[in-house]
Structure formats: C-alpha cells, structure tokens
Amino acid sequence: MGQNSSITRYFNRVHTPIRTNQNETSMDNNERRIITVNSGPQATKFISNRISTSKYSILTFLPKFLFEQFRKYSNIFFLCIVIFQQIPGVSPTGRYTTAVPLTFILCCAAIKEIIEDVKRHFQDDEVNRRRVLVYRDGAWIYTIWSEVKVGDIVKLVDRDYFPADLVLISSGEPNGICYIQTSNLDGETNLKVRQGLPQTAHVLSSVQLKELQGTIECELPNRNLYEFAGTLKINSVAFPIPLCADQILLRGSQLKNTVWIYGIVIYNGHDTKLMMNSSSVPLKRTNVEQVTNKQILFLLLILIILCLFSTIAGEFWNYKNKDAHWYIGLNIGEDRETWRHIGFTFLTFFILFNNLIPISLQITVDFVKFIQAYFINWDRDMYDPETDTPASARTSNLNEELGQVKYIFSDKTGTLTKNEMIFKQCSIAGIMYGSGNVAEFNSYELLKNLEQHTTRDEIREFVTLLATCHTVVPENKVHTELPTEVVYQASSPDEFALVTAMKQIGVVFFSRTPDSVTINFRGEEERYDILNVLEFSSDRKRMSVIVRTPRNEIKLYCKGADNVIMERLATNDERAQLTSEHLESFATEGLRTLCLGYRILTKQEYDEWLVEYRQASTAINNRNDLVAEIANKIEQNLILLGATGIEDKLQDQVPDSLIKLHKAGIKIWVLTGDKKETAINIGYSCKLLTDQMLNIILDEENLENTQRQLRQHCQRFGDSLCRENLASLVIDGLTLKYALDASCRSDFLKLAISCKTVICCRVSPKQKAEIVELVKQSTDAITLAIGDGANDVGMIQTAHVGVGIMGREGVQAACASDYTIGQFRFLTKLLFVHGVWSYRRLCKVILYSFYKNICLYVMELWFAFHNGFSGQILFERWTIGIYNVLFTAAPPMAIGLLDRCCNTETIMRFPAIYRMSQNRTDFNIKIFWTWCLNAVYHSIILYFMSYTMLKHDVAFSNGQVGDSLFLGNMIYTYVVFTVCLKAGLESDSWSLFTHIAIWGSIASWFIFFAIYSYVWPTFPVAPEMRGMAKYVFSTPYFWFGLLLIPITTLFADFVYNCIQRTFYKTLMQEVQEKEVAHQDPSDLVNSRQPPTTSRVAERLALLKSVFVRPKTPKTTGISDRPYHGFAFSQEENGVIPQDQLIRNYDTSIIKPSGL
C-alpha cells in the first residue's frame, strides 16, 4: 500500500509518461544524470565527494585575500600613496616609507588569514576522512568519504551518517524499510521511514548484489530536499522502475534503528542536496569596521581639502614673495610647467598629510582581534567535558559584534534541547507518581500500589496501554530469552521513552508479529492481538489501538492530547478534575503530556464498527476524512486512566541562559523545522513562553487570511507596535511563507519585533535564512544565529555572527560558523564577557589609533605656516614612518588585549551591563570626531607651546640656535610622551603589561633617538640626524618642556574625566567603583534599570483588553489558557502508514546480516 502510494505520487509529478521502450526517454540528455550500476566506470565524469567549507585554496588565496584587503578604504588609500611616492621629486618622505609598512601589514594579515583557514581545512578533513564500506569489483572495501564515487554501492550500519545522496536498495529490516533521522537537515525530531523498491528489496547479500546491474536516470543536482524524480532500469526487469523521494537517503541524515542498508550513490560532494543548500563562506564586515570606513572617507575628504588649501597657500606665498626672493619660480617657465608644478605640489602635500589616516590601524586591529580569539579558545569556563569541545573562534574578524547583538535566531533540536525524552511523572486514577525534581522516574510507589491498592486495576490498564498502544518495534540483539535484553526501534522519541519506562518497571514489550504484540508483565507473558490501529495525525492529536486481550476481551486503548481525550470521556468520570490539576502541574514543569483512556467493546459493537471502517478505508474519494470520522465514532465514552509527563531534555542551564539574554535586551527567535505543538512546548520549558504573556498564534492556509490577520494584530497593538511588549508570536511554516511575501512582509516584521519572543515552526533552511536576512536588512541591529545542524547553515552564514554547536548533529553547522561552542549555555559568556570586552577594547584601539596619528601629523600643517607651504617636513622621514610601528604600537595593544571594564563575575551576574555596548555607546560618529578634534587640540598645544618656547630665546647657553629638525625632535618627544599617557588615561584598568607598554614606549623613543643620532656615516641613512640627540638632551628648555607641555596638553582631558566620573557616571563606571571598594553592586544595577517593567505590564493589560480570542475553533488568534504540549513526534503522511509499518515486522524471524 505504501509502495503503491509512492509510485502514484511519482507518476503525478512526472509530466510525460515513462515508456517501456528504452529508446524513448522523458528527459533530454542535458536535463538528466545517467548512472551505471555494477557496470564498471561511469561514462560521465562526476565531481569528487570531497567537501570544503574553507574560504581559500592554494590557487584562490592571493586574489581573494587581496580583494578582501583592498575592500578596506585605508589599504586602497595607502596603495595610492605608495604609487605617488615613486614619482621623482614629489615625495618629501622618501620612496619607501609607506611601501615597507604596507607590505609588512599585508603579510601579517595574510599569516592571520592562513592560520584561521587552516583550522577550517582540518575540520573539513575530519569529515572527508570518515570511513565507509564500499562494494567494488565484487568485494567490500573500506574507503574514506572523499573517495566515494557516483555509482558506488555503499553499506552503512546503525547510527552511520550517509556520505552522499543515496538511492536505497535494501535493508536488514522487513520489505527494505529503514529509519533515518533528518534533524541535521530539517530540525524534525521524529525518525522518518524510507523504503527500497520491491524489485531490489530482496538483495540481502553480496552474491545477490553482484547480480544487480542496470542504470539510474535521474534529474540533475538541485537543492530541493523533499523532491526527487528518476528511474531505475534493471537488466533483469523488462520495464523502468520509478524512483521518488521515498527511496532517497540524503547526506547529513543518519541511519537509526536499522541494522544495515545498501545504497547507490547518485549525488556526491557539492552536488548533494545538503551542500547545494549551503552557500559559500561569506565575507562579513562588522558594524565598527563599516563606521570606520565611512569616517576614513570623510578624513580623506578633509585631507584633500587640506592639500588644496596648502597648495593654494603655497602659490599665494610664492607670488607674494617672489620679488623679495629672486630664486622663487626659476624652474617654472611656461603655463604648462606652472600647472605641472601645482600638481606636483598637491601630491607633495597629499603624501605629507597621508598619515592622518593611520597605516598601522588595520594590523593593530587584526592583531588585537587575533589574540582576542585565542582568549575565547583558552576560556576553560566554555569547555564542554561531555563532548570534549572547547569554545573556538573560527574567525577573529567579528569579535566586537558579539558585544552588540540584539537578535538571536536559534535552532531548537540539538541547540536548546538534547533530543532526549525521559519519562518523569504520571497520574493514574487521580494519584500522582514521580517528581520533576529527580533525574529518573521513581517507580516505588507505583509498584507498591500495583500490588495492594484500590487503584491497582487502573494501574494495570495504564501500564498495559503504554506497553501496547504504540508503533515501537523490539529487537533482541543478543538473542536471549531474557525480556530485559530487548532494545527498541521507534520513530517517535516520545514513544521510545514511554515503552522504555514500562520496561524499567517490569512491564516489558518484547515481541511483535504482524497481528500481535507480546509483553512480559512482571514475569508473566501476555499476548495481545492487534485488531486495528487508528493512526496519529496532527489533526486528530491522538492514537488508538483496538486489541483482543488474553482474557478474550476487546478493548480500545487511546492516548493523545489532553483536550481531545477529555472531551471524549464518559460524562460521569469523577477523576477528570484531579487529572487536570496534575496536568497543570506537569505543564508548569515544562513536561510534554499525554492523556490515556480506554473502553471495553462488545463483539457486536466492534463488528458493526469494523464494517464501516473497512468501507471508509477502501473509499475512492476523501478516504482520510472518512477514516478519521469513523475512528472518532468509536473513540467515545472513554474511561480516563491518567496522564503522563515526559521531559524533552533541555541542554544544561538553557532556561537560565535565555532569561539572562532577555535581561540583556536581546530578543530570541526560535526557528525550527519541528511541529508547532513540539516547538510551543519547548518554548514553555525554556521559559520563553509563559501564561502571563500575550501569546499570538498564526496558522493560516492562504495569503489573504495571513495578510488580514497580520494587519488586525498590528492595529490592535496600536501605539505599542514596534515597542517592547510582554508578548510572543508563534507562526507555522506555511503561514510564514505567506508572511514573507512582499505584501505581508512589513506587517509581519512590525508584529514580530513588537514581541519579546518569536517561534517559527516547520521552517525550511531557506526560510530560516530569509527571516534572518529580513531582520538584518530592516533593522539597524546586530543579529546572531546559533544552531547545530546542516539545516542551520543558511541562517548562520546570513547573520552578522554565526555560532555553531559542536558535537551534537555532525559538524556541518560548526564548519560554516564563525564561533563554535559545546552547549547553548556558553553563549552567555561569549556575549557578555568576550563580546563586551572585545567591543570596548576594539573601540578604544580604533579611536586611539586615529588620535595619535592626527596628533602628530597635523603638526605638518602648523609647520607649513612657518615654512611658506613649501612641503618641508618637520620630522625626520624614517621617524615619521616608524612612529606607529615602534613608539606608539604597544599602548593600543595593551588597551586592546588587557583593558577590562568589569570583571567576569559582575558581567555574568548583571546582564543589564551588556546594554551599554549593545547600544553602541563606545563607538559612533559623534565619539569618533570628538576624539579627532581632541587630537587637533592637543597638536595645537604641543606645537605652538614648543614653538613659542624657542621663538624669543636661544636654546643653548653658547648662543647656538636650533633648526627646524631640532624643533621637530623636541615636539616628537613631547608627542610620544603625551599620547602614551593618554592611553593610560583612557584605560579602565592598569595591569603590569599596561605599565610596560606605556613607560616602555616612552623609553624606546629615548633609546632609539640616542642610537639613531649616530648611525651615520656607519650606515648611509639620516645624515641630518647626526648628533641631534646630544643637542636636544643638552638644552634645559627640552627638559622643562617635557615636564610642562604634556601635562598642559592632557590637563583638559583629566578635568573632563574628573567631572564626568563625579557628576555624570555611567552604569559601568559606578560598577567599577563598587568593584574597587569590594562592594556588591546589586542595588546599584537594579536602581539604574529603566522603569520598563511597569510600562510593559501596563501595555500587556491594555493589549489583552484589545485582543479578543476568536470564537471559532481555529488556532489562529490569542491563546488565553495554559498550554499543555502533548508528547507525539510521529511522522505524518510517511512512506508507509503506521498500521502497515508495524504489521511488516515479525521479531521472531532473525534478520539477514547483509554480507
């Protein structure tokens, strides 16, 4: 039946019929792939199975690296300077004073990129070197994944990942069935069933496999995960056999609960659907970098204006003084020479002033980020011993973005949850058993009451129902008679948890045949005949089986969601109220609940119903609706047995982590491929959803209704739209498809950002990326995406920052991410500590780098007023070039690596501190230009105080007067002293390295100056510096100025800091003072919180009065009652109906080994 439906679906998709004549084909050669099976080499050469998620290869490194580096405006600028310096007679600073530093900077950046990309190559190699069993030349051989070829036949065993996209031939299960887990692709937790073709399901050994020869014709590689069209032509079969998605095993999926399978490789490497849904590694640029680039453009404009002004001023000075100074203009003759002279003068000033833009900025920033990344890697608090996974920064370019995140997009399965279901509590006949506070179910009271309590009959029915009403298949792998040795195969993790729990209390389901199940009830074997299975669906929200008991009674066992079971109970059930209270308790603890009921059927009643059921199940039209209607007739007047509570085990500390993230002003969006009910239940477990919130659920089936609902909700929010509200939004994947339409997109975004939490269900990988892109492009906010599966790669690469959970569902997400961690809880420290520290440190590094360059090099402009705008330099050319490399390199390093605003414990305790960096208070246009103007102010004081000091007096007692270079070296010394002390003034904390960096930088100039003054003529460099240190150090004016001028320069900064820290303290500064005083800052942080809680509560009350729950039974609208997530994770509309699936199994038959 399942196979016939698969064939029918295939033929409905194929536009032209497949003809038995092999010369006639339905696909053009250019639109199909032909693969030979067991017939030697392929006629067509296909790509290899090697995958790569790295940014570079040996061939592409240089062009890609240069492209990325010269996207930065500063590097383009300095490349132009290098070119201009090669023009003879133009450069006042020599030909190589920019080329050498720029080359050094690019080499350092290249080394950093190589080191980071080598890590990606190693991770790719881990995947490419996995081993798999391949059938070649009549023998099984082990080979690595990267050597798997199209047309190869592979054998995989339980828990193996598929190395490529395969066509299922056969398996060790009945009728070629296998179970696969696709959570790595679509996020769904339940197992899915795939079935090989009947014509190949008999191939169970190598001998039979050798005889299998033919060809596969299929569509070209594409990214459609859920569609496939092809044909299998076997030499021993006269007609082509259609293939569809029911026979396809996709790379990234995992074989589960299946002994072994044979599969033929049809797509490999980057042709697999998984890889085609992935995109190339994007080149991400941080917000700080973008702002910096824009300001560099403004500085460039100012530089051009200064050059124009200096050129015009120089020409004006020459014109005014040409009569007094006869030599001016002798080398200028014709008008053409005049314009050439003006052009060269402009280039001279352009080269002279070019260092207003710091050439060392990029290498300083890259080095700081590189070391910051190692701080993340070395953080022991983010090491996960369970998976032996440390935190890892796969790129260092985005460290500061971690401190500005406002939206987190999270996967559910494997990210928030472990995908482990544990039976925790139950309620039987109004009595609660177990506790949510213990790791496992405590069965002592239940077993005690089973023996001698008045409710022992209800307990027996309860456990019998759980042991028989399911689709689980037992397997005795050790082939013993002991029922405790049985292991279970289950497509639903919830059913697996329930059956396993019954096994632990001694009610063991250990055998299944097509017509019966056998349980061992505490030592006694009982056989139940399975008469009918009434399947679960998301509409029915329940599953029932009709069984004949060992006492020849006919019973209906039913389990399902509380609302559907309660409304089908007998009217006089007295225990319903107690059970409802227990359900409330289970839901409060975040458990997935099921209600259990049963009824005894008379033979006549059952026979009459069976006639109607058979008619409905064979109907041509509306079969599913008729079957559901007939099933509903018999699922009435149930006797309530009780309820179960299953914990969908969360990752450690997930609720606490989410609460902290919310307190930090971060909005959480959960994007999952799982069902709505499952996602909502996890939302409650994680505390993302509460009954105190305004819970909005959107589940529409067309564009018109979606558009109407979105507009109505937006109108009801009124003035609260796009503001912080205590509300949540849950939206289904189909509705989301319409919500992302151009006509709905704006309303959907407004509604979503008005909610504290958004949960999107049944979301495809493409939709995940689209949602992230929508928020990223429509809001001025930093986004972060976190996930662990291949279905999360798109959103991880789209978001500003991508974080992969390592060691849960493969490494695809980790390989595509920017940062990897072992568990979700480590995200808080990654953001709050490393993010805040990196952001604040990097902002200071950038601002300080511009400050120190402007402070020194703008003095060339002041000096131009005294040299007739001739382009004469104030400082020696090589001291200009190494100013950033030697004398002022260490202070920004100290700030960027060791400056600390608050300690780790404080930031982790008070997430509100994160809001300061999130709101970009440390780096914006206003702050940038404030620092630049401050640098100009400092340069004015430094230059004109030094100039004035020597203007009216001689520098030496013997009457000797210093020249321009003498003045320049004095000012240079004062500048080094001032900018180093400025670094200390801006540091939040002083460490030993800070002292070494500041005082060591000052000392390095004095040492260099003393040595450099005597290198000529030993080395042919700087003859004008000969003996200069002796002249400068021997004058008392120098030492007096060294004491007076830097202090005068920084006095205004010191006064400003004192006033600001006294009267206008930031929260960060107040917390720092509390830390120094060893006081608890709790009261301080709480008092400084904006009073939004009361306003949000008021808006919530107002919104609840405006939103009215629809009277129709649709789920779309406002949820105003406590939600009980029910524990079902079955695959719906699968390859094989659940009834047929379990009837395929006979556990008394030994499974083939597949050898």
From TrEMBL:
<keyword id="KW-0547">Nucleotide-binding</keyword>
<feature type="binding site">
    <location>
        <position position="791"/>
    </location>
    <ligand>
        <name>ATP</name>
    </ligand>
</feature>
<protein>
    <recommendedName>
        <fullName>Phospholipid-transporting ATPase</fullName>
        <ecNumber>7.6.2.1</ecNumber>
    </recommendedName>
</protein>
<keyword id="KW-1278">Translocase</keyword>
<keyword id="KW-0812">Transmembrane</keyword>
<feature type="transmembrane region" description="Helical">
    <location>
        <begin position="845"/>
        <end position="865"/>
    </location>
</feature>
<feature type="binding site">
    <location>
        <position position="559"/>
    </location>
    <ligand>
        <name>ATP</name>
    </ligand>
</feature>
<dbReference type="InterPro" id="IPR001757">
    <property type="entry name" value="P_typ_ATPase"/>
</dbReference>
<dbReference type="InterPro" id="IPR036412">
    <property type="entry name" value="HAD-like_sf"/>
</dbReference>
<feature type="transmembrane region" description="Helical">
    <location>
        <begin position="296"/>
        <end position="319"/>
    </location>
</feature>
<feature type="binding site">
    <location>
        <position position="792"/>
    </location>
    <ligand>
        <name>ATP</name>
    </ligand>
</feature>
<dbReference type="GO" id="GO:0016887">
    <property type="term" value="F:ATP hydrolysis activity"/>
</dbReference>
<dbReference type="GO" id="GO:0045332">
    <property type="term" value="P:phospholipid translocation"/>
</dbReference>
<feature type="transmembrane region" description="Helical">
    <location>
        <begin position="923"/>
        <end position="945"/>
    </location>
</feature>
<keyword id="KW-1133">Transmembrane helix</keyword>
<keyword id="KW-0472">Membrane</keyword>
<keyword id="KW-0597">Phosphoprotein</keyword>
<feature type="active site" description="4-aspartylphosphate intermediate">
    <location>
        <position position="411"/>
    </location>
</feature>
<dbReference type="Pfam" id="PF16209">
    <property type="entry name" value="PhoLip_ATPase_N"/>
</dbReference>
<feature type="transmembrane region" description="Helical">
    <location>
        <begin position="996"/>
        <end position="1017"/>
    </location>
</feature>
<comment type="similarity">
    <text>Belongs to the cation transport ATPase (P-type) (TC 3.A.3) family. Type IV subfamily.</text>
</comment>
<feature type="binding site">
    <location>
        <position position="672"/>
    </location>
    <ligand>
        <name>ATP</name>
    </ligand>
</feature>
<dbReference type="InterPro" id="IPR023214">
    <property type="entry name" value="HAD_sf"/>
</dbReference>
<dbReference type="GO" id="GO:0140326">
    <property type="term" value="F:ATPase-coupled intramembrane lipid transporter activity"/>
</dbReference>
<feature type="binding site">
    <location>
        <position position="592"/>
    </location>
    <ligand>
        <name>ATP</name>
    </ligand>
</feature>
<feature type="transmembrane region" description="Helical">
    <location>
        <begin position="1037"/>
        <end position="1059"/>
    </location>
</feature>
<dbReference type="InterPro" id="IPR044492">
    <property type="entry name" value="P_typ_ATPase_HD_dom"/>
</dbReference>
<feature type="binding site">
    <location>
        <position position="768"/>
    </location>
    <ligand>
        <name>ATP</name>
    </ligand>
</feature>
<feature type="binding site">
    <location>
        <position position="673"/>
    </location>
    <ligand>
        <name>ATP</name>
    </ligand>
</feature>
<dbReference type="Pfam" id="PF16212">
    <property type="entry name" value="PhoLip_ATPase_C"/>
</dbReference>
<keyword id="KW-0067">ATP-binding</keyword>
<feature type="binding site">
    <location>
        <position position="411"/>
    </location>
    <ligand>
        <name>Mg(2+)</name>
    </ligand>
</feature>
<feature type="domain" description="P-type ATPase C-terminal">
    <location>
        <begin position="814"/>
        <end position="1066"/>
    </location>
</feature>
<keyword id="KW-0460">Magnesium</keyword>
<feature type="binding site">
    <location>
        <position position="495"/>
    </location>
    <ligand>
        <name>ATP</name>
    </ligand>
</feature>
<dbReference type="GO" id="GO:0000287">
    <property type="term" value="F:magnesium ion binding"/>
</dbReference>
<dbReference type="InterPro" id="IPR018303">
    <property type="entry name" value="ATPase_P-typ_P_site"/>
</dbReference>
<feature type="binding site">
    <location>
        <position position="413"/>
    </location>
    <ligand>
        <name>ATP</name>
    </ligand>
</feature>
<dbReference type="Pfam" id="PF13246">
    <property type="entry name" value="Cation_ATPase"/>
</dbReference>
<dbReference type="GO" id="GO:0005802">
    <property type="term" value="C:trans-Golgi network"/>
</dbReference>
<feature type="binding site">
    <location>
        <position position="413"/>
    </location>
    <ligand>
        <name>Mg(2+)</name>
    </ligand>
</feature>
<feature type="transmembrane region" description="Helical">
    <location>
        <begin position="339"/>
        <end position="357"/>
    </location>
</feature>
